[in-house]
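Q: Here's a chain of 116 amino acids. Please give me its 3D structure as tokens.
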Amino acid sequence: MEQQAHKVGERVEKFCVACGEERGHVVASVTKRGGISRVTCPQCGTRSSFKAGDTAAGDRPAAKAGAPYDPARTYRTGQSMTHPVFGPGEVTAVIEPQKIDVLFSDRLRRLIHGRA
């Protein structure tokens, strides 16, 4: 069985001990062979190790779909959305009054929101 090479910034599913639930984590570091070594929880910021037996996003169904993304709408942390290009995602942080970080299946992306 061929092992998939991962990159920093990708999303993987892992149980977060600090949050107490399974959620998407961002790959923080990889090995020379492309294996995931450390991940960061975008919700609480906890960095933890990732073992080969942990589940990767490619092995699981996609994140729950939310309402379609609308740049005019104001979002808050934890909301789900569906972007027309990137697919389903979850708001992980409100950066500025008009910027949010959204965790999609491939990586964390910064989007605008609250624009009239």
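Q: Can you summarize the key feature?
A: The two ends are 50 Å apart (CA to CA).
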